[in-house]
UniProtKB/TrEMBL annotation:
It comes from the Eukaryota. This is Myosin motor domain-containing protein. It comes from Sander lucioperca. Keywords: Actin-binding, ATP-binding, Motor protein, Myosin, Nucleotide-binding. Residues 18-203 form the Myosin motor domain. GO terms for biological process: axon extension.
Amino acid sequence: SYIYSRERVYAMHQSSIDGVEDMSALAELHEAAIMHNLYQRYQKDNIYTNIGSILAAVNPYKQISGLYDPERVDLYSKHHIGELPPHIFAVANECYRCIWKRHDSQCVLISGESGAGKTESTKLLLQFLSVMSQKSAGTSPLEKSTRVEQAIVQSSPIMEAFGNAKTVYNNNSSRFGKFIQLHFSEGGNIQGGCVIDCILICI
Ligand SMILES: Nc1ncnc2c1ncn2[C@@H]1O[C@H](COP(=O)(O)OP(=O)(O)OP(=O)(O)O)[C@@H](O)[C@H]1O
């Protein structure tokens, strides 16, 4: 152990005590402050935190009530990024809007160690985008979604049946990386897509 003298110990900044939704607002930006902020938020079931335009997600390993409800999809679809608390739906909405705002293809890169929640995050993104697609096509949420949206959401369990395995880190671990492409019409609905397997993970 190392004993610090009183002169070398500083009081925690108020922003670290209160916690922040965006880590760029932390007055002290070092590993301990980042981990403490994530931990404080995680304890209150706030699993999402922004780091500027990046979203950090902490796997809660439990269902958080209401977090991914259709009402939440609707709410995030009507707000710009930063107006509501950090959420994977805010990223999905920004991505969807930017196709037209920037007149260009958009991508979301999801990374993290095994069991971090990448696959679940991907499915939530696809769920949000398929709802946006249905809305743009004028399909009411009560009506059945179109074949392509259904295929996108329902392809996950099939891909998982072939490509996932139980490991010591994750009961449902993806054994290959995926590049998922979605094609949108000018009107905003999904016209098609593909999944390309890109890396084989064999640990
Ligand atoms: N947002 C979430 N809410 C609730 N549970 C979650 C969430 N994200 C992940 N989990 C839980 O954690 C488990 C592991 O997550 P997931 O399979 O997405 O990890 P991964 O990062 O894709 O891992 P791998 O790299 O091994 O494929 C899920 O099966 C689920 O039980």
